[in-house]
Each structure stands twice: as structure tokens, then as C-alpha cells.
Design brief:
The structure is a homodimer. By secondary structure, chain A is mainly alpha-helical. In chain A, 81% of the residues lie in helices and 0% in strands. The first copy, chain A, has one domain: Methane Monooxygenase Hydroxylase, Chain G, domain 1 (Up-down Bundle), CATH 1.20.58.220. Chains A, B: Keywords: Cytoplasm, Phosphate transport, Transport.
Amino acid sequence: MQTQHTMRSFDDELKYLADQIAAMGGYAERMVAESIEALIQSDAGLARKVVADDVFLDEKEREIGERSVIIIGRRQPVADDLREIVGAIRISSDLERIGDLGKNIAKRVVAVTEGRQPMRLFRGLEALADLALTQLKEVLDVYASRSIERIGFVRDRDEEIDAMYTSLFRELLTYMMEDPRNITACTHLLFCAKNIERIGDHATNIAETVHHIVTGRQLPLERPKEDESHRVVATPAK
Amino acid sequence: MQTQHTMRSFDDELKYLADQIAAMGGYAERMVAESIEALIQSDAGLARKVVADDVFLDEKEREIGERSVIIIGRRQPVADDLREIVGAIRISSDLERIGDLGKNIAKRVVAVTEGRQPMRLFRGLEALADLALTQLKEVLDVYASRSIERIGFVRDRDEEIDAMYTSLFRELLTYMMEDPRNITACTHLLFCAKNIERIGDHATNIAETVHHIVTGRQLPLERPKEDESHRVVATPAK
């Protein structure tokens, strides 16, 4: 039989996992924000910092994975508690991936800076990043507070991100056609935009995992809509 | 105490998981091969089939996740068995993602076909896809056979994929600069190339997970090299 002490200690272990996820979340959020800042300010130093920072999330993901397996082995949790732990593994993997995407944006800063830097190119990207960061903050709140009634809102915002990404995709293609000297920078910016769109997807995954942790039920597989950028065809003016 | 029957039945459950992973692997492999074929042959029908097929992997991933949690809850496995089950969750998630990447390639078929289709554009992509598919087949074999001595080879091939992707990135940028009418098709092909490069990464993840299942140890975090496409800067001829 479990003693009161063991019970409290198991709760502590679950709390430890949740705290680590919260730490990863805050860290990933900062990395993404800094990668966008580095891009817009052409700040190669800040970009290098973001690239270096990424190892923290890689290590934390591993730590959470190993710790979770130890907890499962030692505590033999069932139902809610087990979902909580498996959910922590999943969420840490989404957050690690968000860090990778931020790192990938940061790595393109130098190539974008070497080409031309028409400031108008960055405007759409900045708006897209703002939306994705709001999304990420929101799902981290949902995880911390377990207020799953906000998940519908998260899915709606993901659609908004997808639509904005598709229009940015079209815009960047147009700039490339206007002037071949824009091609290098715009191509890297297209990949940055795609990375931001993916950050929105991972944030949405996190929301869905929280829903599963709390309710034990999966949300329907098909999300309402996806980005439509794969359909975009632009033709040169003449 | 566990009876002989229960023991055998637990083995059956583990075998069931491994069989599901093998089925997912074969399915993902076929999706990727067909997406490349659809792209090169401009086969919109085959592309639609690949897009529709993806739901199978989504459902299988969920099924493996749910089944794993039930097995853990009921069997309370430790050490090797627990690593095996948590490994199955991870691998199913990599395979589901590989299917997504194949689907994403297939979705671009129509946009690539509408623009110009210089066949030379596809050559590099085909070679890259061949390498990634060989990689995927290899890691599925490593999973089935647990022959982890082949993992070094898998990591080496991942470097080769990254190098080939970087050179393809540069080549596609050059085509865009040569003729703005290539821009739409080449942009979509750049994303296809990136998807293939990511398929190689996920295959490598799977190899690393198998290493962990078999040995209980993680491989060092830093992989030898990463793709260098983020550095590529191309300038128009005049």
C-alpha cells in the first residue's frame, strides 16, 4: 500500500515534469522571438546565440523522456497519471522541435543579410511570427491551467496562421519575379515563414495533447483546414 | 504471479506493436516513393491518392499510442520492455511525420506541373529521394532485426543526404535566376527537396531510437554535421 509520503512524492514527480515542460516552453518562446528579432535587425550575434541555445531544449527533452520512463517503471501509474506522463513526453518533443525551427530561422540570418534587404519583405514575416508566438503562449497557459475550453480558439488561430502564411508565400514569390536579386533572400524568408507556420502546428499539437491528458479523449483527427501554399502559382509580369 | 499464458500474451502484445510499426514503415515508404513518382510524371491522380492515403498513418499512430498506454497500464513493464513500448510510440510518430512529408510533396504536384517543367530540375530531386528511401528501408530493417551495428552507416548516409540537399538548393536557386518563369516550380521543388531531407532526419531518429531500445543508452546528441543550405547565397548572372 502506498503511504501518504509516497503519494506526495509521486505528486512531486509529476509537478517536476510539469515544471520542466513550463521551463522548456518559456525557453522555446524566447528562442523563436529572438530568431525573428535577429532576422529583422540583421543581428548575426543574436542569431549565433539562438543557434547555441538550442542544445538546452535537446537536453531537456532527453531528460524528460528518461525521467518519465523511470517514473512509469517505479510508480506504475494508471489512467490520468499515465496520460499525464506520456503527454509530457509528447509535449517536450513538440517544444524541442519548436526550438529547432527557431534555430533554423536564426541560421538563415547571414544569408538573408548578404542579399538585398527590402524591409517590406519582413513585415509579413513579423506579423506571422507574432501570431505564432501568441499561439505558443496561449497553449503553454492551457497546459499550465488545464483550461481546455480555450482549445477551440487555438485551432481557429492555427487556421489564421495558415492563411497568413499562404498569402506571404504568394507575396515572396512576387518579389522574386520582380527582381532576381531578391531571389536568395526571399527563398530563405520563404523557409523562415514555413518554419513559423510549423511552430503554429506544433503549438496546436500541444493543445491537443493537453485535451487528451485532461479528458482521456482524442480530438477528431482532421483539423478544419490546412495551409494552401502548395497551390500557389505566380507568373512573371511579362 | 504471472502465468506462462500471461507471459506469452505480453510477448504477443509487444509483437503486435512491432508488427504495426513494420506496417506503418512499409506504408510510409510507399507513400514517399509514390509522391516522387507523381511529381516526376506530373501524375495528379497518383498525387491525390498519396494525399488520401495519409490518414492511415495518422490513425495507426494514434492506435499505437493508445495501445501502448493500455499495455503499460496493464502490464507494468520495466527496463527493456518499457523502452520497447516507449520506443514504439516515438517511432510511430516519426513514421507518421514521414507520411506527412510525402503528402506535402504530393500536394505540390499540381503547382509544379502548371509552371514550366524542365526535366533537368527533377534529376537532383530523384537522386535525393532515392537516397532517403534507401535510408528509410535500412532503418526499418535495423528496427526489425535489431542489428544496431548498422547505425553508424545510417548516420553517415544522413550526412550524404544533407550534402546533396545543399547542392540541390543551390542548383534550384540558379534556375530561378536564369528565368523568372522557373520561379514557381523551383520554389515548390525546393520545399519538396527540404521534405526529402527531413525524411532522412526522421529515418535517423528512428535508428537512434532503436539504439536506445536495444542498449538502454542514448547516442551523443550532436550529429556529425547538418545541412548547409541555410548559408547558400546565389547572385544573378548580371
